[in-house]
Amino acid sequence: MHAPTTKLVLLSVLTLMIISHASSLRFHYTNSHNFTTKTSTPSSSSSSSARRSSRNPSLALVHRDAITGATYPSRRHAVVDLVARDNARAEYLTRRLDPAYQPAEDLGRSEVVSGLDEGSGEYFVRVGVGSPPTEQYLVVDSGSDVIWVQCRPCDQCYAQADPLFDPSSSTTFSPVSCGSTICRTLSSSGCGDAGKCQYEVSYGDGSYTKGVLALETLTVGGTAVEGVAIGCGHRNHGLFVGAAGLLGLGWGAMSLVGQLGGAAGGAFSYCLASRGGSGEAGSLVLGRSEAVPEGAVWVPLVRNPQAPSFYYVGMSGIGVGDERLPLESGVFQLTDDGAGGVVMDTGTAVTRLPAEAYAALRDAFAAAVGDLPRVPGVSLLDTCYDLSGYTSVRVPTVSFFFDEGATLTLPARNLLVEVDGGVFCLAFAPSSSGLSILGNIQQEGIQITVDSANGFIGFGPNTC
């Protein structure tokens, strides 16, 4: 009886690129008769209040490190800072997506709770606000709905990289009335001076933005989108890394995708450029792409009524090499009361797995790499290796098995993160609950399309 073979990919220690025949991204169907591969997605019949030109707006998606210009004494210090932000984000999501979660009741009359935690925005886009457009950096958040920017006059504002938006200088700024349908879309409605709709977005750490809800023109990728409901924040508190505000891309009606409706087809796609690579930006495209990448597969989205802004996917298991991990059935299941499940999140870097699943992944990975020199972990990254003496090493593949038969096998560079001086750590960590979070390190370099109108998420080939 032959010992089972372990599927390996060759990892260049210097470049973190796959250089063996096991190329960037591979999809496999284990149950093809129950799974339909789409070459395109059907058009949406959703109505839209916001209007745009016919072409799909495209934006450069920039990692926060390129915006802040932060410098660290060493790569290790940068990773420790990343992990600290990441822990805050993951713990907030864990609280927010707990069925027992109750938002604070004393934060104002019109509260909307977002997935963004203080200082944890990882990716930014450049958006023009108003007419003529005032260029602003906005944090991209796939777990949030409300779009907002800091506004003049500002009673309380944090420091941002760009000048504050002045609504009095825009010819298209139009405050929303208290009795409007848009105002009532908020979880509760507030009424300010002259019958203007007040909004408030609060975050789990006490940061917030408060102000007036208005219709405004946003210029995204050179395309003017008219009549977008945004928050014009006159009282803001938090560490938003110099960004002027937030661009919500969640599944709710107030997100940019939700507001565009039929205009964008209820869909968007993004590609996260690899950090520490060539320095090139990734991309964010609103609407359906006319050219769906060859080899893309589509996985059904799962709706969580307890957290309708978040994009969940049905996942049934994980594999390391050629072996599917022997996990308890239902470890990734979203329960009827909204607990557990697997959520896609651009704001979390390191993928979180339930403790049982993470331990099995870690142990199988360590067994497969054999005698590579192990070194102490760095914060929550507990599986680390000193590869400074190697030109290249072979590491096992890691695969996500989704419901209905699709398997996503990650590129080698999406498995390990460099900490310092040739030390690399497995970029996975245990969750403090049954919630799983697919983080942005595992999403890097993969074209991802979210079709919320039809309830699918697509993973394309390695195109970034």
Automatic annotation (TrEMBL):
<keyword id="KW-0378">Hydrolase</keyword>
<feature type="domain" description="Peptidase A1">
    <location>
        <begin position="123"/>
        <end position="460"/>
    </location>
</feature>
<comment type="similarity">
    <text>Belongs to the peptidase A1 family.</text>
</comment>
<dbReference type="GO" id="GO:0006508">
    <property type="term" value="P:proteolysis"/>
</dbReference>
<dbReference type="GO" id="GO:0003677">
    <property type="term" value="F:DNA binding"/>
</dbReference>
<dbReference type="GO" id="GO:0004190">
    <property type="term" value="F:aspartic-type endopeptidase activity"/>
</dbReference>
<dbReference type="InterPro" id="IPR001461">
    <property type="entry name" value="Aspartic_peptidase_A1"/>
</dbReference>
<keyword id="KW-0732">Signal</keyword>
<dbReference type="InterPro" id="IPR032861">
    <property type="entry name" value="TAXi_N"/>
</dbReference>
<feature type="active site">
    <location>
        <position position="141"/>
    </location>
</feature>
<keyword id="KW-0238">DNA-binding</keyword>
<keyword id="KW-0064">Aspartyl protease</keyword>
<dbReference type="InterPro" id="IPR032799">
    <property type="entry name" value="TAXi_C"/>
</dbReference>
<feature type="active site">
    <location>
        <position position="345"/>
    </location>
</feature>
<feature type="compositionally biased region" description="Low complexity">
    <location>
        <begin position="39"/>
        <end position="58"/>
    </location>
</feature>
<keyword id="KW-0645">Protease</keyword>
<feature type="region of interest" description="Disordered">
    <location>
        <begin position="34"/>
        <end position="58"/>
    </location>
</feature>
<dbReference type="InterPro" id="IPR033121">
    <property type="entry name" value="PEPTIDASE_A1"/>
</dbReference>
<feature type="signal peptide">
    <location>
        <begin position="1"/>
        <end position="24"/>
    </location>
</feature>
<dbReference type="Pfam" id="PF14543">
    <property type="entry name" value="TAXi_N"/>
</dbReference>
<dbReference type="InterPro" id="IPR021109">
    <property type="entry name" value="Peptidase_aspartic_dom_sf"/>
</dbReference>
<dbReference type="Pfam" id="PF14541">
    <property type="entry name" value="TAXi_C"/>
</dbReference>
<protein>
    <recommendedName>
        <fullName>Peptidase A1 domain-containing protein</fullName>
    </recommendedName>
</protein>
